[in-house]
Each structure stands twice: as structure tokens, then as C-alpha cells.
């Protein structure tokens, strides 16, 4: 059901762990829905110089977490904010339809981290937009992946 | 890391089983020379007809019924659909209420939900923390409108064996018919439809080393059941369609083999299963066994591992050649984890982190050793990735 690339990324995930001196931390998901991602960022001059993650979830969630942290390394915060879950899915060579919503988790966690960074510096958090159900009020059934 | 095992270690026998060589051998002539239609009148078709009738006798003997009470179907799902819809439609004038349990297979649950949309009412009985239906609850749920009680003999996910004989007695005391889905129980739980007060029983060939696409429904003599599949006059006019002769012959041989020595089989399988359970619970912290400690199928082990998700466990095990199953939502593409695990009171997180290993006749002690070696590694690896894992449970990576 998964592509070789997803299995590879899931089996050997990159950037796993915490950053004790992170400049920003973001979290998305809930244990009820079955996935949670926590992301830690180091930021220098508005650019992401290090990224680590911890994820509770299925293979798609873990693979997208790993891929997303790899993709945002070296990006400016604005670029990372604009990283879409479609970008992550493409980089993974696709995800099965019922699993596409799992990739929203990484985007949401990244945006939460960027807002954490902004808040720490006294800036207004950005409007996060419609995220994964797991981070919102609607619960699992509101998830676009669960239509 | 050389974790690519060459061999496939199959421990998902509740999903399906391999076909035993004896079963394949019994079927072979019916796939080639004995191809006649059992309904045809010429002598050439006699072999096919005899094959079907011999199998009917084998199924009847296995559950303590007479041959005339056995009807072949396309599998367990059809048998469940037929039993429940057939009783409901044939007894509309007597009542419109059905009692079942919250942990039934979807073949029963979705059939009941469909009947609700047709105007029937259904009570879904809760279960205790071990997945058992209390017979007294069945009695309390029965009303003057109740026409059927349907409770499975043993659960497919957690393996809990139900007090079927007591439930049958409660139903009969109130004059209500009793159906049981015995799909997972054949070959593990000795069945006697008389002693257990069973009026209808569903079974499926591929769960006990028989062919897929075969099943049967036992209908007690004299029970009014509406026909579901209309057409020709096969199965004494109650289930139309040319018989799956090779499949039926295989089903008959398989059930004969599966019920020849249930006690000996259970002893052997349960010994391996118990070692597996002790080994896993002993080596993986924050793990639990789901289901009943003793009243369970001898081949079933169902665990929950906290802080991680079941599909991930499954795929890492698959990478090591081990076939298992999970009640996590993520494996099924649905938004909810297993209704069975939730009904026993597990939290969503615990249900998401479930793993089912079901042993079979080809498994050996070495297979158990191998799983006991691989599984704790896999759990540890996923827990190192999870943000939920407390520091005390986080096992450092072995070099």
C-alpha cells in the first residue's frame, strides 16, 4: 500500500529526537486521533539551521515528519510556513488516499513551531489556516481524509 | 543492520489460514475430473453430488447437528447475513427486536444496522473489561418484541470466548431464537448445537485450514428463516446457486481435521501462546494483554503497547518478515480504532497501540522465540521516536 520511498523514510527516519536549546517548539495532533508530532527548531537569522521531531503515529505520519524536517532545513521561516502537505507527499512519492491527511500533521507542527518562535519574540502569531482535524475542534470525523 | 529475514513468519491465523495438504488433496478431483453439476440427473454428476453430501455430513458431525440442518454459503459473512436477515424477515409478525453484542464482527453489526434502517430495533449489549457478554444482561435486554439473540462464540480480535451455552439457555427460557457466529471458534471451542442451545450457527472454511469463499449456516430443524439468495433449487430450495463443489468438499475435509482432536490441538497451541504472552509482557514495559486471561481462544494474543501506534508496529514487523494485525484506525483507513477494544474500556491511545498475534498449526517454538526477539526491538525503536514515551520507558538504541 505504501511506496518504497515511504517505507524507507519510515524505517530509517532522519532528524529524530529533541533539541534541548531549541528556539521554537511546535506540536500538532492528539492521541485520540492516533497521531501527534512535536517539532524542535534552531533558527539563525530567520533561517532554520536544525530541526528534530518526535512522532506518535502510523508509518505515513512518521515518514512525513522525517521528510518535512529534511525539507525545511535551510529554509527561511516564511518558506517553511508555506511548505504544503502536498509538497511533502510529492517528496515521498505519494501516499495512499486515506493517508494523505497524515501529512497535514507535519505542516501543522511546523506552523505551530513558527508561531512559537514569533511569540517568544513578542510578534503576533500568524493565522494558521485550516489545519488537520487532529489539531482542531472538530475531532477525527472532521478530517478531510476521513470523508 | 541486516534485518531482512528471508522467511515469512505468519502469525495472523485469525485473518486466514493456509490450506492443509489433506484439504487440497480432497479438493483436487473436484477441480478436474468430477466437474459435473450436482443438480444434473446423469450418473456422471453423481460424484459431485456425493462430494457435497459427504461434506454436509462432515460439517453436521463437527457441530452435533444432522446433515439436513447444514446449508452451504459463500462464507461466514453470507451465513451471518442470512441468519440475521432471514430470522428478522421471517418473524416480522412476532416482533421487531434483536439483541446482539457490541463486539460482534462487522458481518453481524452492519447487518443489524441495516435492519435498524428497515424499522427493526437492535440492542447492542456492552461487554466487561475482558470482552465477555454477561448472560443476565441478555435476559434483561429481551422484551416481548425480541425475535433473535445473536452473540458470537469467540471474538476475532481479542479471542474472548463467550458463555454461549448460558446465553442460549437464557434466550430459550424466554422463547427467543439464538444465533452464534462461530467463525473463529471452530476447531478451538467444542461445539454441540443441542447442548449449547444454538438455533443458527455461522462458520467459514478459511479460518480452519479450508478454502476461502466457503462457509455454512446451521439452521435448526423447523426454524423459519427467509431465503436471501433466490434462484435455482439448490440447498433444498433455501440457498440458490450452483454449489462450489471443490470448496464445499474442502470445507468438509477441513472441519473434520479441525475437530478431530480439539483438546490436543488447544494444548499445543496454548502452550506456545502462553510463552509468547509471558515473554512479551515480561520484556516490554507498559504493555498489556487485551481480552480474557483464561476464557480466550488458544491461539490468540492481543497486546496494547502504550505511546506507539499499531500500524507502525505492523510495518516494522513486516520488514522483519512477521505477519501480524492491529486494531488501530490507521491500518483500516477509518477514523476510529477497533470497536472491540473500545468496548472493553480501552482508551483510544491504547486501542491505537494494539497488536494481534494469532498462532496456527504450522507455528513452532522457534517462531515464538523469533517474535520474542524482534518485537521488543520494534517497540523500543518506535518508542524512541514517540513524544509520548516517558524517559523511564525510553530504551537507548543498541549498538
TrEMBL record, chain B:
<comment type="similarity">
    <text>Belongs to the class-V pyridoxal-phosphate-dependent aminotransferase family. NifS/IscS subfamily.</text>
</comment>
<comment type="function">
    <text>Master enzyme that delivers sulfur to a number of partners involved in Fe-S cluster assembly, tRNA modification or cofactor biosynthesis. Catalyzes the removal of elemental sulfur atoms from cysteine to produce alanine. Functions as a sulfur delivery protein for Fe-S cluster synthesis onto IscU, an Fe-S scaffold assembly protein, as well as other S acceptor proteins.</text>
</comment>
<dbReference type="Pfam" id="PF00266">
    <property type="entry name" value="Aminotran_5"/>
</dbReference>
<feature type="binding site" description="via persulfide group">
    <location>
        <position position="330"/>
    </location>
    <ligand>
        <name>[2Fe-2S] cluster</name>
    </ligand>
</feature>
<feature type="binding site">
    <location>
        <position position="184"/>
    </location>
    <ligand>
        <name>pyridoxal 5'-phosphate</name>
    </ligand>
</feature>
<keyword id="KW-0963">Cytoplasm</keyword>
<protein>
    <recommendedName>
        <fullName>Cysteine desulfurase IscS</fullName>
        <ecNumber>2.8.1.7</ecNumber>
    </recommendedName>
</protein>
<feature type="binding site">
    <location>
        <position position="156"/>
    </location>
    <ligand>
        <name>pyridoxal 5'-phosphate</name>
    </ligand>
</feature>
<keyword id="KW-0408">Iron</keyword>
<keyword id="KW-0411">Iron-sulfur</keyword>
<dbReference type="InterPro" id="IPR017772">
    <property type="entry name" value="Cys_deSase_NifS_bac/arc"/>
</dbReference>
<dbReference type="GO" id="GO:0031071">
    <property type="term" value="F:cysteine desulfurase activity"/>
</dbReference>
<dbReference type="InterPro" id="IPR020578">
    <property type="entry name" value="Aminotrans_V_PyrdxlP_BS"/>
</dbReference>
<dbReference type="GO" id="GO:0006520">
    <property type="term" value="P:amino acid metabolic process"/>
</dbReference>
<comment type="subunit">
    <text>Homodimer. Forms a heterotetramer with IscU, interacts with other sulfur acceptors.</text>
</comment>
<feature type="binding site">
    <location>
        <begin position="76"/>
        <end position="77"/>
    </location>
    <ligand>
        <name>pyridoxal 5'-phosphate</name>
    </ligand>
</feature>
<dbReference type="GO" id="GO:0046872">
    <property type="term" value="F:metal ion binding"/>
</dbReference>
<dbReference type="InterPro" id="IPR010240">
    <property type="entry name" value="Cys_deSase_IscS"/>
</dbReference>
<keyword id="KW-0001">2Fe-2S</keyword>
<comment type="pathway">
    <text>Cofactor biosynthesis; iron-sulfur cluster biosynthesis.</text>
</comment>
<dbReference type="GO" id="GO:0051537">
    <property type="term" value="F:2 iron, 2 sulfur cluster binding"/>
</dbReference>
<keyword id="KW-0479">Metal-binding</keyword>
<feature type="binding site">
    <location>
        <begin position="204"/>
        <end position="206"/>
    </location>
    <ligand>
        <name>pyridoxal 5'-phosphate</name>
    </ligand>
</feature>
<dbReference type="InterPro" id="IPR016454">
    <property type="entry name" value="Cysteine_dSase"/>
</dbReference>
<keyword id="KW-0808">Transferase</keyword>
<feature type="active site" description="Cysteine persulfide intermediate">
    <location>
        <position position="330"/>
    </location>
</feature>
<dbReference type="InterPro" id="IPR000192">
    <property type="entry name" value="Aminotrans_V_dom"/>
</dbReference>
<dbReference type="InterPro" id="IPR015422">
    <property type="entry name" value="PyrdxlP-dep_Trfase_small"/>
</dbReference>
<dbReference type="GO" id="GO:1990221">
    <property type="term" value="C:L-cysteine desulfurase complex"/>
</dbReference>
<dbReference type="GO" id="GO:0044571">
    <property type="term" value="P:[2Fe-2S] cluster assembly"/>
</dbReference>
<dbReference type="InterPro" id="IPR015421">
    <property type="entry name" value="PyrdxlP-dep_Trfase_major"/>
</dbReference>
<feature type="domain" description="Aminotransferase class V">
    <location>
        <begin position="10"/>
        <end position="370"/>
    </location>
</feature>
<dbReference type="InterPro" id="IPR015424">
    <property type="entry name" value="PyrdxlP-dep_Trfase"/>
</dbReference>
<keyword id="KW-0663">Pyridoxal phosphate</keyword>
<feature type="binding site">
    <location>
        <position position="242"/>
    </location>
    <ligand>
        <name>pyridoxal 5'-phosphate</name>
    </ligand>
</feature>
<dbReference type="GO" id="GO:0030170">
    <property type="term" value="F:pyridoxal phosphate binding"/>
</dbReference>
Amino acid at each position: 500500500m505504501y511506496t518504497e520511498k515511504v517505507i524507507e523514510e519510515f524505517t530509517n527516519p532522519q532528524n529524530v529526537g529533541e533539541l534541548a536549546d531549541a528556539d521554537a517548539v511546535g506540536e500538532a495532533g492528539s492521541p485520540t486521533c492516533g497521531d501527534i508530532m512535536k517539532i524542535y527548531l534552531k533558527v539563525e537569522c530567520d533561517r532554520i539551521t536544525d530541526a528534530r521531531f518526535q512522532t506518535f503515529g502510523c508509518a505515513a505520519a512518521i515518514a512525513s515528519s522525517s521528510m518535512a524536517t529534511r525539507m525545511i532545513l535551510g529554509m527561511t521561516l516564511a518558506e517553511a510556513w508555506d511548505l504544503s502537505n502536498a509538497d511533502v507527499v510529492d517528496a515521498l512519492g505519494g501516499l495512499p488516499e486515506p493517508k494523505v491527511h497524515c501529512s497535514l500533521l507535519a505542516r501543522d507542527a511546523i506552523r505551530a513551531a513558527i508561531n512559537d518562535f514569533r511569540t517568544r519574540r513578542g510578534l503576533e502569531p500568524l493565522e494558521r489556516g485550516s489545519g488537520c482535524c487532529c489539531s482542531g475542534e472538530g475531532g477525527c470525523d472532521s478530517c478531510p481524509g476521513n470523508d | 543492520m541486516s534485518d531482512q529475514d528471508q522467511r515469512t513468519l505468519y502469525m495472523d491465523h485469525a485473518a486466514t489460514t493456509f490450506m492443509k495438504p489433506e484439504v487440497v488433496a480432497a479438493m483436487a478431483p473436484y477441480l478436474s475430473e468430477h466437474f459435473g453439476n450436482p443438480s444434473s440427473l446423469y450418473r456422471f454428476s453423481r460424484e459431485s453430488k456425493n462430494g457435497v453430501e459427504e461434506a454436509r455430513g462432515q460439517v453436521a458431525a463437527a457441530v452435533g447437528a444432522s446433515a439436513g440442518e447444514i446449508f452451504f454459503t459463500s462464507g461466514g459473512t453470507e451465513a451471518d447475513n442470512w441468519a440475521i436477515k432471514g430470522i428478522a424477515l421471517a418473524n416480522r409478525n412476532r416482533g421487531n427486536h434483536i439483541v446482539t453484542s457490541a463486539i460482534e464482527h462487522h458481518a453481524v453489526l452492519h447487518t443489524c444496522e441495516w435492519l435498524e434502517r428497515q424499522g427493526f430495533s437492535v440492542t447492542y449489549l456492552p461487554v466487561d473489561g475482558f470482552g465477555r457478554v454477561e448472560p443476565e444482561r441478555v435476559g434483561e435486554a429481551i422484551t416481548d418484541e425480541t425475535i433473535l439473540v445473536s452473540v458470537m462464540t469467540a471474538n476475532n480480535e481479542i479471542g474472548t470466548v463467550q458463555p454461549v451455552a448460558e446465553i442460549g439457555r437464557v434466550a430459550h427460557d424466554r422463547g427467543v431464537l439464538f444465533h452464534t457466529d462461530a467463525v473463529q471458534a471452530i476447531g478451538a471451542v467444542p461445539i454441540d448445537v443441542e447442548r449449547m442451545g444454538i438455533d443458527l450457527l455461522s462458520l467459514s472454511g478459511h479460518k480452519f485450514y479450508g478454502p476461502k469463499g466457503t462457509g455454512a449456516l446451521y439452521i435448526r430443524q423447523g426454524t423459519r428463516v427467509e431465503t436471501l439468495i433466490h434462484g435455482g433449487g439448490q440447498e433444498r430450495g433455501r440457498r440458490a446457486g450452483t454449489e462450489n463443489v471443490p470448496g464445499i468438499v474442502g470445507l468438509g475435509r477441513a472441519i473434520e481435521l479441525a475437530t478431530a482432536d480439539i483438546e490436543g490441538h488447544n494444548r499445543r497451541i496454548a502452550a506456545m501462546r502462553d510463552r509468547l504472552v509471558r515473554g512479551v509482557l515480561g520484556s516490554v514495559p507498559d504493555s498489556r494483554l487485551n481480552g480474557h486471561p483464561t476464557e480466550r481462544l488458544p491461539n490468540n494474543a492481543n497486546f496494547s503497547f502504550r505511546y506507539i501506534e499499531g500500524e507502525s508496529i505492523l510495518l516494522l514487523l513486516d520488514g522483519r518478515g512477521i505477519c501480524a494485525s492491529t486494531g488501530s484506525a490507521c491500518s483500516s483507513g477509518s477514523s476510529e480504532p477497533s470497536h472491540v477494544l473500545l468496548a472493553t474500556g480501552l482508551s483510544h491511545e491504547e486501542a491505537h497501540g494494539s497488536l494481534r498475534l494469532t498462532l496456527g498449526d504450522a507455528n513452532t517454538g522457534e517462531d515464538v522465540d523469533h517474535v520474542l526477539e524482534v518485537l521488543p526491538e520494534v517497540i523500543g525503536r518506535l518508542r524512541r521516536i514517540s513524544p509520548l514515551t516517558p524517559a523511564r520507558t525510553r530504551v537507548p538504541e543498541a549498538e
